[in-house]
Amino acid sequence: MIVTNYLCAFATGIALAAVSGAIAQNPAPPERGEVVDAAAPQPAAGDAEALSTLVAVNKHEIAAAELAQSKEVDAATRDYAKMLERDHRANLEKVENLSKLTKTPITESPDVAQLKNKAAAERATLAKLDGSAFQTAYLDAMVQGHAEVLSRIDGKLLPGSSDAAVQQHLRSTRESVSKHLAKAKELRGSAPAR
Questions:
Q1: What is the rounded distance in angstroms from the CA atom of residue 81 to the CA atom of residue 75?
Q2: Whether the Cβ atoms of residue 119 and residue 56 lie closer than 8 Å to each other
Q3: How far apart (Å, rounded) are the C-alpha atoms in residues 47 and 149?
Q4: Nearest CA to 67 among 116, 130, 140?
Q5: Which of 41, 43, 54, 115 could form a disulfide linkage to 104, CB 3.0–4.6 angstroms apart?
């Protein structure tokens, strides 16, 4: 009888240890109002800001490139718009995958909201134009916008990020944006004056 009680207690202890181990490996999500362990790794706010900014920039560039392709522009500007659409779609997909991989949420901070509003206003202004007026304004916007993105990456996003994968993507994005800026300047320089 004593041996049986001992074996039952031992088996119960093993079962409880197994359940405790499973809970430790796969903790339940916090309930509403529950205090979360502050020591647990959390995505850095700078990483969320960086990825969220890139989502806003990519979506704007895609929409602006689609708009440019619907307008009467020269072949070089049309090719540039196609390149921007392709590159920014690829970047957007990478950002979304990186967000999932690093568990960094895409959020809308006041800076991101302001960026989105400015981009929407720019597209609305461009949409009213046609022909060479559109082409000139579009290329001007691409020069200014890509220069601003480079400045934002260098001055805020890279210094504010802490995740190595996010930083690497920012560096890669910076290289691509720099090429886009150079091409926009080249096209703008060869475009006919208004």
A1: 10
A2: yes
A3: 16
A4: 130
A5: 43
CA–CA dist 84, 26 (Å, integer): 42
pLDDT, tens digit (0-9, with 9 covering 90-100), for 80-126: 999 999 999 999 999 999 999 999 999 999 999 999 999 999 999 99
Q: 134-150, pLDDT tens digit by residue?
A: 999 999 999 999 999 99
Q: By the 8 A CB rule, do 84 and 65 touch?
A: yes
Separation CA 16–CA 35 (nearest Å): 25
Of the candidates 76, 88, 83, 78, the one whose C-alpha atom is nearest the C-alpha of residue 187 is: 76
Phi/psi for 170 (5° steps) reads -60, -40
Q: Does domain 45-190 sit in CATH 1.20.1260.10?
A: yes
Count CA within 13 A, CB hemisphere, residue 125.
13
Tokens of 143: 């020069």
User: 2 burial class (0-12, 13-18, 19+ CB within 10 angstroms)?
Assistant: exposed
CB 154 within 8 A of CB 174: yes
